[in-house]
């Protein structure tokens, strides 16, 4: 199995026209309309390990070798049980990139539990989530195509933030995250027909032009494969490792509008409500609030609590749109008989999702209940 990064996709190799960049840079919030609904997924956030081979300057999530934690199988089962009782549908597995790469303690612990690698443990963790009736959405960082292929039968969807196509100092260091590697991961997921979430991290040193190029790069990968389900517009927030301020609301508003113009309508534009003044962004084309957990913290942004579901309802009411709970995989990736709305024109085939995942969705949403619940 080759190492992630052995293959890269450089942004300069994507067919992004200068006129498209200039056109996107002209976009302002007044050029887009507010969405006609807001969606969210009810999840449990499972920080499988805080080990990571990288050390991004803005990240408060990772722990240094020797200090990193890893959820044991019994801890995991206990949390999955809690999630089931709280009526969550998504098991969100977020953790550092290639955690057993340089963390010998993590590797030894996995060995003790009978796993050859963190990847093997992840697959088992997803199977456990399915046992508890939850749909796994994984954020594994960069993966090889071979790794994604083995993971695919056990997941509903996958995510990895592009963040930016620019080489920024926030990624600096001898083990820096590479935009070309991340583009390759997103492209490979598309070739494997894995429903995928990605997005931009604003305020880490990128320029307006680089924001436009990043959005157009995502749009190009979606044009090739049709696999992007949501694009996040996420502002960086200060923490114990990152003392720079968040980007202004105006920057979030303009970038959100640019995303809405850059991506086709089938791709949701997501802004996290715990990291932004979400009310002031709703007119910029936001139609998704992402995963919200009623039982766990946002471990990547621990100072920023999720809003209560009641607050989401108020938000939607003030915007005069319905608030709909969704699965971590979108309707268009499901066979017609499992979609929440039969009005959708879908070319979906079974190749997006395994039989195991489809069975799980069938169990979560009986066939006679096509209307999504409004909380
Ligand atoms: S942002 Fe992700 S890749 Fe970077 S250090 Fe944190 S966990 Fe690792």
Give an overview in words.
With 375 residues, the chain is α/β, with parallel strands linked by helices. It has a domain at 11-41 and 147-370: TIM Barrel. It is 31% helix and 13% strand. The protein has helices spanning 18-25, 73-85, 104-113, 118-131, 145-151, 179-191, 208-225, 249-262, 309-319, 355-364; strands at 38-47, 90-94, 135-139, 157-159, 196-202, 228-235, 268-270, 288-292, 323-325. Strands 1, 2, 3, 4, 5, 6, 7, 8 and 9 form a 9-stranded parallel sheet that branches. It starts with 17 loop residues before the first helix and ends in an 11-residue tail after the last helix. The structure holds iron/sulfur cluster. Residues 52, 54-56, 59, 61-62, 96-97, 141, 177 line the site of iron/sulfur cluster.
Gap from first CA to last CA: 45 Å
Low-pLDDT regions: 1-5, 342-346, 367-375
- Enumerate how many helices there are, as a single number: 10
Helix content: 25-40%
Q: Secondary-structure element order, as H and E?
A: HEHEHHEHEHEHEHEEHEH
The average pLDDT value, as a whole number, equals 91
Shape: globular
Are any ligands bound, and if so which? iron/sulfur cluster
CATH class of the domain at 11-41 and 147-370: Alpha Beta
Tell me the CATH architecture of the domain at 11-41 and 147-370. Alpha-Beta Barrel
Q: Radius of gyration in whole Å, from Cα?
A: 19 Å
Structural class: alpha/beta
Query: Which band does the percent of strand residues land in?
Result: 5-15%
**How many β-strand runs?**
9
The CATH topology of the domain at 11-41 and 147-370 turns out to be TIM Barrel
Largest sheet: 9 strands, parallel
